[in-house]
Structures are given as structure tokens and as C-alpha cells.
Amino acid sequence: MTDPYRIAPSPGDDTYASFHPPADGTGRPGDGAGGVTSTMLWILTAVFAGLNTALSVAGQEIVGSVFGGLAAACLVVLLVRYLRRRDR
Q: For the segment 38-47, what is each residue's pLDDT rounded down to a tens digit?
């Protein structure tokens, strides 16, 4: 029985099929641009979520909820950025 997950050689070629990036220099959609922005959004999300937790525990629910809303907004922006890059 043949293995359906085995990487077989290409017809007429002695090497195994592999990924070759496009010649025009474009790689995967997530490469390069956006790395710093995404990193900053993740850091802000963690900071805002931490402030939300700390202020809520300290009894400042209203101020804490503002930071919770900001954390949720950062997550929405991250999701939108991911979905846009995935469709390219």
C-alpha cells in the first residue's frame, strides 16, 4: 500500500518537489512588513489586559474596564490584520 503523505519526486525530475519562492521577491504575506506593528499590538494587549486585571482587583472597575476595552480593541485590530494578510 502506498503512503498518501509521502513526498514523491516530480515527474521527470530526480529531486523532490519543494517550495521555491517567487522570483519577484515576494514571499509569504507575513514576511517583513508588519512585524513591528504586530509585536507592538501584542505588547499593548498584554499591558492593557494586565492593567484591567490589576485595577479590577483593586476595586477600580470603571477605570479597569477602560483598559479592558483597549485590550479588546487591540485584539480586534490584530484579527483584522491577520485576515487581510491571509487573503493576499
A: 899 999 999 9
